């Protein structure tokens, strides 16, 4: 027996592969979601800002009025000792500046405190010139304005 030889062509013929079935295309995105997200962000932002504003208005007391500023300036003037050359150069000048600022704020809010602000300013100016006699005289006048 020998090798079998094929005398005829194969009976199978070539055919292309079946077409690929792709999944269906996704539905187009809805347009409502971006608008909904923007509206939600706006509402949340307004709540945060409004809550912060409301919270700070509850935590912070109202600003003092001119009478409170004048009373604080008078307390400082009343606590100041008599001026000497040594004391003018130390911390009393800072306290005197504070009293001057408070009395000026009181005068800006109410004209009745203008004389207190002027007297306090004169005390400060006399102390900066290192004239202790004039500073003590002006301090007595400023305390009288209280």
From TrEMBL:
Residues 1-26 are annotated as: Disordered. Residues 1-10 have a biased composition (Basic and acidic residues). Residues 15-26 have a biased composition (Pro residues). The keyword Membrane applies. Keywords: Membrane, Transmembrane, Transmembrane helix. The chain crosses the membrane at residues 35-54. This is Uncharacterized protein. It comes from Cryptosporangium arvum DSM 44712. The lineage of its organism: Bacteria, Bacillati, Actinomycetota, Actinomycetes, Cryptosporangiales.
